[in-house]
């Protein structure tokens, strides 16, 4: 079975500060890892994903994440927060079969303070 | 590409009434997922289909909930009878059957049961 733990249900940062959202996963097979963002009153949008290859993955809006197998982590970072980054962020894991649903974490709400 | 289409976007109904939510997945996608999102429970997977066949409905909360996928371009989630605790945002997502496993989400239906 696979699972995701997102540390911190709510993270608050100042505008221009580093954003770090934590995600740890559990998987008995090589994982595929995802970060989704949900803006208010909208559906989830893919920010970035890791499948194979380079462990540092770059996504939209300046976000990136690094797959660290030894730490079973896939933390999301952005060097400088913008007000428009305020949203809910979900980490998700799956296997490579393409036949099973993504397993989502409980989400982290990011607030950006001016 | 129109993306995943859900209707209605908002639904307000009275307890005991039947509610039908509709979803049109992205053309060519062969997996479809229904999720429910509430403040208390977060994002919950209700049921998913592969090639129009229900694979796992263990997330369906009660027999009052049912889902169908009569063809590759349409799915419904029905609640009969509805109860106030069913109030939530219901998301539909679809996925192509290729490696990468990205799920594309619709905008959601906000259901309020009075």
Detailed description of the structure:
The complex is a heterodimer of chains A (114) and B (114). By secondary structure, chain A is mostly beta strands. In chain A, 0% of the residues lie in helices and 54% in strands. Chain A has no helices and eleven strands. Chain A has strands at 3-7, 10-14, 19-26, 32-38, 44-50, 56-58, 64-68, 73-78, 87-94, 103-104, 108-113. In chain A, strands 2, 4, 5, 9, 10 and 11 form a six-stranded mixed beta sheet that branches. In chain A, strands 1-3-8-7-6 form a five-stranded antiparallel beta sheet, with no helix packed on it. In chain A, β4 and β5 form a beta hairpin. Chain A starts with a strand and ends with a strand. Chain B is mostly beta strands. Chain B is 0% helix and 54% strand. Chain B has strands at residues 5-7, 10-13, 19-24, 31-38, 42-50, 53-56, 65-71, 74-79, 88-95, 104-105, 109-113. Chain B starts with a strand and ends with a strand. The model of chain B has no long low-confidence stretch (mean pLDDT 94).
Quaternary status of these chains? heterodimer
**Beta-strand content bin of chain A:** over 45%
Spatial extent as radius of gyration of chain B: 13 Å
Q: State the helicity of chain B in percent bands.
A: under 10%
Task: Give the fraction of residues assigned to helices of chain A.
Answer: under 10%
Unreliable spans of chain B are none
What is the number of strand segments of chain B? 11
> How many strands, what sense, and barrel or not for the largest sheet of chain A?
6 strands, mixed
Give a count of the beta strands of chain A, DSSP E runs of length 2 or more: 11
- H and E string of chain B: EEEEEEEEEEE
Radius of gyration of chain A: 13 Å
Q: In percent, how much strand structure appears in the residues of chain B?
A: over 45%
- Assign the structural class of chain A, choosing from mainly alpha, mainly beta, alpha/beta, alpha+beta, or little secondary structure: mainly beta
Distance between the termini of chain A: 41 Å
Q: Helix/strand/pairing class of chain B, anyone?
A: mainly beta
Between the first and last Cα atoms of chain B, what is the distance in angstroms? 36 Å
Major sheet of chain B = 7 strands, mixed
Mean pLDDT of chain B: 94
Question: What is the approximate shape of chain B?
Answer: globular
